[in-house]
Amino acid sequence: MKTLLASCLALLILLSAPAHAQNTQSFGDYQVYYNAFPSGILQPEMAQNYGVFRSRTRGVLMISVHEDNKPITARIRIDASDAGGGDVPVELRRLRSGNTYSYLGTFPIENEKRVRFRLEIIPEGSSDILHVAFSRTFHVD
User: Fold this and answer.
1) How far apart are CA 92 and CA 34, in angstroms?
2) pTM of the model
3) Who contacts 85 (Cβ-Cβ below 8 Å, separation ≥6)?
4) What range does the record give for the signal peptide (predicted)?
5) Per-residue pLDDT tens for 66-111?
6) Is residue 116 within 8 Å of 78, Cβ to Cβ?
7) Domains plus CATH for the chain?
8) E strands within 39-129?
């Protein structure tokens, strides 16, 4: 069951962003998959299994790091801010299901507000620092 939920969550990472958004960045042998979306789009069972509060005012950040297309662990630092430069706190935790790892963060959102994310990722066993930056405007009404 957990493997199925992890697969569904991974699929949600790729499908829930606007079609024009780039949700993958490659860095040599490493790939970083990421997405941010309102928590209210999660199915109730999935949200409950992952401890995510479904709300119009909460967002979800999903990150998965792969080496040669296999999921790996990493240290991840997140700097998130709104359009005015104010900090947006992101509570990040690692999820594991079998050999699959992903990172889930939650944060406050407001309608029509843009959040800028800057990720600093250090894959396990590496000294490489991978930088990912993206932004999302949330529509919650």
Assistant:
1) 13
2) 0.83
3) none
4) 1-21
5) 999 899 999 999 999 998 889 999 999 999 888 889 999 999 999 9
6) no
7) 2-138 (2.60.40.3340)
8) 58-67, 70-72, 74-82, 91-97, 100-108, 113-123
